[in-house]
Amino acid sequence: MLSYPEETAVVVESHEGFYPLLPETLEDTGLPIVLVEDLLLKILLAQGVLSGRDLAEVICLPFKIVHPILMDLKNRMLVVHRTTAAFGDFVYNLSEQGKHAAMLAKEYSGYAGAAPVIYPEYLRSVEEQSIRGESPKVENLRKAYADVLVNDTILNTIGPAINSGRGLFLFGEPGNGKTTIAERIRNCFVNEIYLPKTLWIEGEIVQLFDPQNHELVEAQDEKQDQRWVKIKRPTIVVGGELTMESLDIKYNITLKVCEAPLQMKANCGTFLIDDFGRQRVSHKELLNRWIIPLEKRYDFLVLPNGKKIQVPFDELIIFSTNLNPKDLVDDAFLRRIPYKIEVPSPDESEFRALFQFQCEKYGISHNEEMVTYLIENYYRGKRGFRACHPRDILDQVINISTYLGVSPTMTSDILEIGCRNYFSAMECNPASEK
Predict the structure, then answer these.
(1) Phi and psi of 266, rounded to 5°?
(2) Which of 132, 174, 397, 412 is the most buried (most CB within 10 A)?
(3) CB-side exposure of 357: number of CA atoms within 13 Å?
(4) Which residues contact 405 (CB under 8 A, 6 or more apart)?
(5) What domains are there in the chain, each with its CATH number?
(6) pLDDT in tens, 217-246
(7) d(CA 36, CA 40)
(8) What pLDDT does 16 receive?
(9) What predicted TM-score, i.e. pTM, was given to this entire model?
(10) In this structure, are residues 55 and 66 in contact, taking their beta carbons and an 8 Å threshold?
(11) Buried b or exposed e, range 297-313, using 16+ CB within 10 angstroms
């Protein structure tokens, strides 16, 4: 097994806000040369023949750093020149000796991509891009929730909770928009952040950037270190599938590659645990896992090599549940979640406003008389209002109208068909059939 020296922090040129500057030398990266050599050999083993500039692009380091390393590998007869390339470059492939060295490197780690960022630089990036550094105002929240109808009371409660950068419970009946509210919190923030693609931590490469959970916002510029990507502040959403294992560093024994846990991917953003209390893992066990992170704002993780590391817990954690928080957690835990926000069911006037709002979104002519018909026949004395109902019922109207070959219109006949589809037969007894 190969071994590498420990990483050391690197002092880089200051920049307004956090900005990962392009390294000028290998020393600027803080990476050991043997790590970079192994990456180059594994990339050539996987792809066969590449120019020096192609290798530099794959490894995300400047050609002026990669070129002398390749020259040294050639002098040691690990790579050979196939032919020349433009601007003093060469096309490389592995020698037999180089293939053997690449296979040994692959035995230690199967990773063959962008050169990692040393852990101290990541810690600095989290500190300088902390979610606590932003203070969304009323206008930011109104813009973030412009496409949904949320009353001012809810907005004025969410605003301070977001500014706290700590945690909140959203609770209330299902269908009232808790998930919608939580997912749009990210849009309240103005700044994007820079995130390393991979990290070099205590001798292990840990993949951090996740295309499924991190949204790229723009192309990188010439001065930026290409080992970093610019993303929107992350919003990681998990539901009933959440397990304790997903909160630990994952090690793929086949590929010999580590992947960062969910809460680490959520740093500098939000971490939404939806349908809390309905996970396969015990909610008490899950809450105990969060006690130290919520209190201290850091977490502890164990690497595959057995080393324990302290990682930042810099995120707004949101628990969304249909259950009363008091039935799920004790007072000691609730104290660590400073904001408990109930998302109530709409009253009749709010329900009518939601119908008008959704009609405008769908481009359907709003008919107040038909909304009254709906309320009198399907709600009064039968069921409570839910914020999702106007949207879902109008979906039924559109689908039924499409089937009938007519323009989507709110009529009593179409509403009755839609409500029979949407609500269960036992619940749905229109007044006209009494």
Answers:
(1) -85, -5
(2) 397
(3) 18
(4) none
(5) 32-115 (1.10.10.10), 125-342 (3.40.50.300), 348-433 (1.10.8)
(6) 876 678 999 999 999 999 999 887 888 888
(7) 6
(8) 55
(9) 0.84
(10) yes
(11) eebebebbeeeeeebbb
